[in-house]
Write a structure and sequence with these properties.
Elements lengths: L2 H24 L3 H26 L2 H33 L13 H25 L3 H4 L1 H17 L3 H23 L4 H29 L4 H8 L1
Helix pairs in contact: 1-2, 1-6, 2-3, 2-7, 3-8, 4-6, 6-7, 7-8
Amino acid sequence: MSNGLYTQLLDVACGAFLLAAVIVLWWRELAAIVRVFALQGVALAAIVVLLGAHEERWDLIAVGLGVGLLRAGVLPYLMRRALTALAVDRGSEEVRETQPLVNVAASLLTAALLTLLAYAVARPLTQLNPTPATRALPVGLAVVLIGFFVLVTRRRALAQVVGFLLLDNGITATAFLATSGVPLIVELGVSFDVLLAVLVLQILTTRIREAFGTTDIDDLRELHD
C-alpha cells in the first residue's frame, strides 16, 4: 500500500470514527444510537487494519478484525437485545432519550469545543513524530472526551452504557494510533473486560427496569429521595 493511499484511507476512517461519536449526540432514538455505535466499531476496526496493512503486520490485522467483531457485532447485539426487552415491557418511552441534561444544539457545540481541545492537547505529541497515525491522534482523544460527555449528560441507563463504550473506543483508538498497535494479549484482555462490563450493565439495567419500571436516572433519584 502506498503512503498516499494509506494516509487518505486512514483519514477517512478517522473522520468516520469521530463523526459517529458526534451523531450519537445528535440522535435521541436509542436504536439509532446503537446502529451508529456499530458503525463506529467498523471505523475503529478499519483504523487498526490499515495500521497493520501499512506495517505489514498480520497480527495487527487479526487484532483489527477481532476489534471489529466485538465492537461492531457482539456489543451492538447485546444492546439491541436490551432495547427489545425495554420496548416490549415499557413501550416507546424507554427507548428514546427524551430529556437529556444538555440539549442537542448545546451538545453539538460542546463536541466541537472538545474536539478543538483534543487537537490543542495532542499538538505537542504530533510534533514529536509527525506520521499519519500520530497526526490522527487528536481524533481518539476527542472521542474519549465526547464519550465522557455522553456518559454524564444522558439520563437513560442504556444511553450511558453507549457513552462508556464510546469512551472505551476512544481509548482504544488512541492506543493504536500512538503506539502503532498493542500486543494481542493486551487487546484481548481489554476486550473481554469491556464485554463483561457490558453484560453486567445489561443485567443491572434489566433489574432496575423490573424493580422500578424505568431506567431514567432522574426518576430513580426521586425514588431514593
